[in-house]
Amino acid sequence: MFNLEAIVDLPLIWFGLIMTAVLLYVILDGFDLGIGVLFPFAPSDQCRDRMMNSIAPFWDGNETWLVMGGGGLFAAFPLAYAVLMPALYIPVTIMLLGLIFRGVAFEFRFKAVTSRRLWDYAFHFGSLVAVFMQGAILGAVVQGVAVEGRRFAGGPFDWLNAYSVMTGLALIFGYALLAATWLIMKTEDVTQAWARKVAAYVLGYVGLFLAIVSISMPVMNADVARLWFSLPNLFYLAPVPLVTAILFVLIWRHLRMGSEYRPFFLSIGIFLMGYIGLGISLWPWIVPFAITFRQAAAAPQSQSLLLVGTVVMLPVVLAYTGYCYYLFRGKASHESAY
Length: 338
What we know:
The protein is mainly α and 338 residues long. The protein has one domain. Helices cover 77% and strands 3% of the residues. The chain has helices at residues 10-38, 45-55, 59-62, 64-76, 78-111, 116-142, 162-186, 189-220, 222-229, 233-237, 239-257, 262-282, 293-296, 300-327; strands at 147-148, 151-152, 285-287, 291-292. Strands 1-2 form a two-stranded antiparallel ribbon. It has a two-stranded antiparallel ribbon with strand order 3-4. It is globular and about 55 Å long.
């Protein structure tokens, strides 16, 4: 009988797939959530229409990766899911409510006449709440989760502290940068000029928060400090902060030069380098710093069956996503076409 687990490292493959899905969600849903964060600050209603139209073909499809990340964690690493969900019930629930509220506002705004302003603010606050909770969840996870045996041993509000509030604010500025550079690429005239100013403004805050997180993780955890600052690791890992610093300089330069496409892709590069740095710090933990991904893995038979379905469907989803972005390339109009 064919034995898939004897040929491939199933826990490692699934860990990589889930981490990739989370990264794709952060990047793809990040810029459209950032549109909601920036929404009420746009210069005019016509600018807001352009902003909304720029993400209309993509926003709901972008959330596919959140479903894959959460569903994959439940199916492939049930122990991790069973520990993390009780620790994060409250922020995850609030995040989902924010996403639902935001989605409803998105649909109603296109049809509303007299109540459009109401839905503008609903779209903004739904996005803001969802982004802040995602950042708070990140902050809570990187600090470590209280585990006793095979269950969560903390309280319902362990996730809420000064550090998680800081990471929540950090993600708001990060998504705002993605959104502003997306608008530079997808709009023109007044909206583009405003987005360029916003991108230059939030870039400094993103750098500040990224520096705080990068410094605080080794301070909070001695193992992370040894990983980054021991020799020869220091030389091997030095390219991560160096490349990140270069990306910040390049974004600033291209914003001043008037580039349209490069600031967005360079912003994605910053998120990618931050994600790589975070992955290095947390390896091999899936529940920091208590359970590794191998300890949390489901039975090989379950992971094998899941992988067969994923191998078939994942290329289809990627191809469809790529086709949508290709089909709706170009500048967004202020005229409603939703």
